Amino acid sequence: MRELSVYYCPRCGFYAFHCLSKNAICPKCTEEMKLLDMRWQEFMDLDCDKRDALLSGRLISDHSLVSRLAKPYRENNVRQIVANLLTVIEELDEEIKRLERENKKEKETVEWMHKMIWDLVRERKNAGSGKND
What is the pLDDT of residues 44-55, one digit of tens each? Predict the structure, then answer.
């Protein structure tokens, strides 16, 4: 025999225990009930206040109206946007510093190579003019 599972109605919060999900239809709203990710025995061990808090939390998070009302706040949360921008600015600042260090090292290498090449050119020129004398 299958174990009982806890189902709740996302519209009204009614809950019931069913073995099969096809039987999980809310008798009040006739809406399909959602499975609660908790074993029925754990749910039964909760007192009424904890059950109510759990189900009301699920209703709030599942309810599309709440999601629609909270969406502009989430999208326009200035504090979070500023915090994200500051993080990006710090990352870019670190990248700029790293690139400046790399650029300085490359510039020193080019200057060293340039000096070495001109020294070799002078040596060859002096060696070439010394042979002809």
Answer: 888 888 888 888
Residue 36 has pLDDT above 70, yes or no: yes
pLDDT of residue 64: 60
> Tokens in use for 103?
């650029």
> 40, 9, 34, 37: which is closest to 21 by C-alpha?
34
Q: How many other C-beta atoms are found inside a 10 Å radius of the C-beta of residue 7?
A: 21
In angstroms, what CA-CA distances link 102 with 45, 90, 115? 63, 18, 20
Q: Which two tokens stand for residue 96?
A: 């700029």
DSSP 90-114: HHHHHHHHHHHHHHHHHHHHHHHHH
Please give the residue that has the higher pLDDT: either 34 or 109: 109
* Per-residue model confidence (pLDDT) at position 51: 82
Q: Report in angstroms the alpha-carbon separations of 125 from 37, 122, 132, 133.
A: 85, 5, 11, 13
Residue found under tokens 């510039």: 107
Provide the residue ranges of all domains of the chain, joining segments of one domain with +.
Answer: 5-75
Where do we find the tokens 């225990």?
Answer: 17
